[in-house]
UniProtKB/TrEMBL annotation:
Protein name according to UniProt: 2-dehydro-3-deoxyphosphooctonate aldolase
PANTHER family attached to this UniProt entry: PHOSPHO-2-DEHYDRO-3-DEOXYHEPTONATE ALDOLASE
UniProt-listed Pfam families: DAHP_synth_1 (PF00793)
Catalytic reactions of this protein: D-arabinose 5-phosphate + phosphoenolpyruvate + H2O = 3-deoxy-alpha-D-manno-2-octulosonate-8-phosphate + phosphate
Keywords from the UniProt entry: Cytoplasm, Lipopolysaccharide biosynthesis, Transferase
Keyword Isomerase applies: no
Organism: Thermosulfurimonas marina
Protein's GO biological process: keto-3-deoxy-D-manno-octulosonic acid biosynthetic process
GO molecular function: 3-deoxy-8-phosphooctulonate synthase activity
C-alpha cells in the first residue's frame, strides 16, 4: 500500500492529501501528482494524491461531476503506478466501497455523508484506511460515533478531517478547537485548508470560495498540531471544472509546504504533539 500503513504506525511526518477536486483528465492528474510528490518530499510530507471520479453532491444538475467510476479508477491506478504515490478518492454509496478499495489506498467519506451508517460500515469492511470528512453540520465530539461505525466495519486506520462548520447561509467558519477535540478521539486529524474557505452555493448554482484565506488557516492548523493538511490544487484554478475559487494554484504549493514544515519543526523541537 505504498507505505501508508507504515505512516499510520509511525506518524513521524505530516500527511499531505492533495490534488484536483475532480478528475478532469489523466494528463492533468499525472502533472499535479508529479509536482506535488516532489514538493512534498522536499518539505518532509508524506503525500497521497486525491481526486474524485464523481462529485455526487454538486450544487447544480448541470455541474461537471467527473469521468465516472470505471474511467476514474483507471486514471487513479495510472497515477499510482506512474508517479508512485498512494491515491484516494470519495465513495458515495456502500456498493462502491469494495470496487474502489481494489485500486485506492485510502477511502474518503464526503462530509455530507459522514453519518451514513451503511456507507461507513462498508468502507470499514474493505480493510483500507478511511478518511472521514467532518460534516459541516456535525460537532467535533460527535465524530466519535462516525469513528465507531468504521471500526465496527473492521478498519482501525482512520483519519478525521476538519473542513469548516456551517455559519449561516452560504458560509463556513473554522473552529480550531475542533482539531484538538477530534485528536483526543485517538485518531490522526487532518485540516482541509481549501474546503474550509468554500462558500457553499455562493456562486449562484455553484460553490464559491476565497483562496486568500487558505494559507493563513493552514498555518494556524499546523500550529495546533494537526497530523496533516488536505488541499485541492489545480494548475489554473480559475479554469478548474470544480471548486476553482477555493483551490490553490499548483505553483504556490511548494512554498506553502516549506512554511508549514517549519511550523511543524518548531512544535517538535518544543516537545509538543
Amino acid at each position: 500500500m505504498l507505505h501508508l500503513n507504515r505512516w499510520f504506525a509511525e506518524r513521524k511526518t505530516p500527511l499531505l492529501i492533495a490534488g484536483p477536486c475532480v478528475l478532469e483528465s489523466l494528463e492533468l492528474a499525472l502533472e499535479v501528482a508529479s509536482v506535488l510528490k516532489e514538493a512534498a518530499e522536499k518539505a518532509g510530507f508524506f503525500y497521497v494524491f486525491k481526486s474524485s471520479f464523481d462529485k455526487a453532491n454538486r450544487t447544480s444538475l448541470s455541474s461537471f461531476r467527473g469521468p465516472g467510476l470505471k474511467q476514474g479508477l483507471f486514471w487513479l491506478s495510472e497515477v499510482k503506478q506512474k508517479v508512485g504515490v498512494p491515491v484516494t478518492t470519495d465513495i458515495h454509496e456502500p456498493w462502491q466501497a469494495e470496487q474502489v478499495a481494489e485500486v485506492v489506498d485510502l477511502l474518503q467519506i464526503p462530509a455530507f455523508l459522514c453519518r451514513q451508517t451503511d456507507l461507513l460500515l462498508a468502507a470499514g469492511r474493505t480493510g483500507r484506511p478511511v478518511n472521514l470528512k467532518k460534516g459541516q453540520f456535525v460537532s467535533p465530539w460527535d465524530m466519535r460515533y462516525a469513528v465507531e461505525k468504521v471500526r465496527a466495519g473492521g478498519s482501525e486506520k482512520i483519519l478525521l478531517t476538519e473542513r469548516g462548520t456551517t455559519f449561516g447561509y452560504r458560509n463556513l467558519v473554522v473552529d480550531m478547537r475542533s482539531l484538538v477535540i477530534m485528536r483526543e478521539l485517538g485518531v490522526p486529524v487532518i485540516f482541509d485548508a481549501t474546503h474550509s474557505v468554500q462558500l457553499p452555493g455562493g456562486a449562484e448554482g455553484a460553490s464559491g470560495g476565497d483562496r486568500r484565506f487558505v494559507f493563513p488557516l493552514a498555518r494556524a492548523a499546523m500550529a495546533c498540531g494537526v497530523d496533516g493538511i488536505f488541499m485541492e490544487v489545480h494548475p489554473e484554478p480559475d479554469r478548474a471544472l470544480c471548486d476553482g475559487p477555493n483551490s490553490l494554484p499548483l505553483a504556490e504549493v511548494p512554498t506553502i509546504l516549506k512554511t508549514l514544515s517549519k511550523i511543524r519543526e518548531v512544535l517538535v523541537s518544543c516537545g509538543l504533539p
